[in-house]
């Protein structure tokens, strides 16, 4: 007597294969239908990450401020004044705050699947939701950070203009970009776990070469190729 085709019987009964890959269209629809899960997971992670400390959510703002103080003190003393941009403090604040957003999405996105073995193995859902929830989490944390950033910029003499409204489309594009970076990083990490060890070094290279605390125009003025 021939053995029953269990895969066929399961398919007819509507039982999906846990590790099976669904068609792209269906996968995207499933992701959209369960977008609430990504948002809920992002909010719960914020509560879990900052709920155990006394300052709580204040650390969302305190961390980038402390980084600004450290980098401003160290590189403000080391770098010659000729390499600094005009109005150095607002320049540094904007650069460090925005880069923190990118860096958290990049580093956190890389481990968003490999660092969640329990939920990945126990539940069937589009894995795209995990890096999405991470980027949503860091985006929600950016709301108070942006408010503090504007206060710093105004306090150090930058005039308020209509150009400031461009921050909204810019941050939206930044969200899309960070989401894309997180997807690339998590894809690489799933197949090559060693990528998580390389991510911090890549992040540092981007940070130190992006002109966050020095003016690229001034430093590379004599090197037209790099400029």
Describe the structure.
The mean pLDDT is 80. Helix content is 68%, strand content 0%. It is globular, with a radius of gyration of 22 Å. With 227 residues, it is mostly helical. The protein is built from ten helices and no strands.
* Quaternary structure annotation: single chain
Pairing-aware structural class of the strands and helices? mainly alpha
Tally of helical runs = 10
> How big is the Rg?
22 Å
Helix and strand string, N-terminal first? HHHHHHHHHH
**Main sheet characteristics:** none
Give the overall average pLDDT: 80
The N- to C-terminal Cα distance equals: 75 Å
Low-confidence parts = none
| Helix proportion range | 55-70%
In percent terms, what proportion of residues is strand? under 5%
Number of strands: 0
Shape field: globular
Describe the secondary structure blueprint for this structure.
Blueprint: H1 6-12, H2 24-33, H3 35-50, H4 58-78, H5 88-110, H6 117-122, H7 129-155, H8 167-191, H9 195-209, H10 216-219
Helix pairs in contact: 3-7, 4-5, 5-7, 5-8, 5-9, 7-8
Summarize the structure.
The protein is mainly alpha-helical and 227 residues long. Helix content is 68%, strand content 0%. It has helices at residues 6-12, 24-33, 35-50, 58-78, 88-110, 117-122, 129-155, 167-191, 195-209, 216-219.
Name a few traits of the molecule.
single chain, about 230 residues, mainly alpha, 10 helices, globular
